[in-house]
Amino acid sequence: MSKRLYDPRQEKWECAKALKHFMATSEKYNTQVALARRSGVPQSTIGRILRAEVATQTATISLLIQALGIMPMEFWQVAQGDRPKKGDRVPELASEVMSKVLMARGSRRRAEEALAALWQRENELKQVLERCQLEEDQALERHSKLAFGHQARRQGDRDGMEGGVRA
Q1: Residues 47/32, Cβ–Cβ less than 8 Å
Q2: CATH top-level class for 8-84?
Q3: What is the distance between the alpha carbons of residues 131 and 123, in angstroms, rounded to a whole number?
Q4: What local confidence, expressed as pLDDT, does residue 43 receive?
Q5: What is the DSSP code string of the chain?
Q6: Residues 105, 62: contact at Cβ < 8 Å?
Q7: CB contact set of 90 (below 8 Å; sequence gap of 6+)
């Protein structure tokens, strides 16, 4: 049994071959646009993968595999030229582990989306707080002007009364 040496060029072609195979056998995701919508991977990236122009990142392949509804072992079997035969079963442990990895990635994405929503809400609340502080400052300024004006009138009334008494 000989070990295969890693060749990134070969991996590009293998990924392209496997992706073409599973897109061709899929009823729903047999176009780049449909797969892009389902997976969240840009259509242009899917096109570059199919043309073997890019070395595909694991996260991207995981999104595509998940969207196609296949197991990672099936994808790599096809990529390496070993088409799954009827009755072949992905080892249960590998299947379970990959399912957990994909679920964890989905949980991470949901957590990142929730965090982004919280940051947006925090910014909105900061803006509301700034508006409230501005309105409070303006109200205090108006109150100060009114109080000063009232005090000045009272002082003027006193001056007038004192002036009237002296005269």
Answers
A1: yes
A2: mainly alpha
A3: 12
A4: 92
A5: -PPPPP-HHHHHHHHHHHHHHHHHH-SS--SHHHHHHHH---HHHHHHHHTT-SPPPHHHHHHHHHHHT--HHHHHHHHTT-PPPTT----HHHHHHHHHHHHHHHHHHHHHHHHHHHHHHHHHHHHHHHHHHHHHHHHHHHHHHHHHHHHHHHHHHHHHHHHHHH-
A6: yes
A7: 71, 73, 74
Asked whether the predicted pLDDT for residue 120 surpasses 80, the reply is: yes
Whether pTM exceeds 0.70: no
Per-residue pLDDT, averaged over 95-111, amounts to 65
Return the pLDDT at 94: 56
Question: Mean of the per-residue pLDDT values for the chain?
Answer: 76
CB 16, CB 52: distance < 8 Å: yes
Tokens of 73: 């072992």
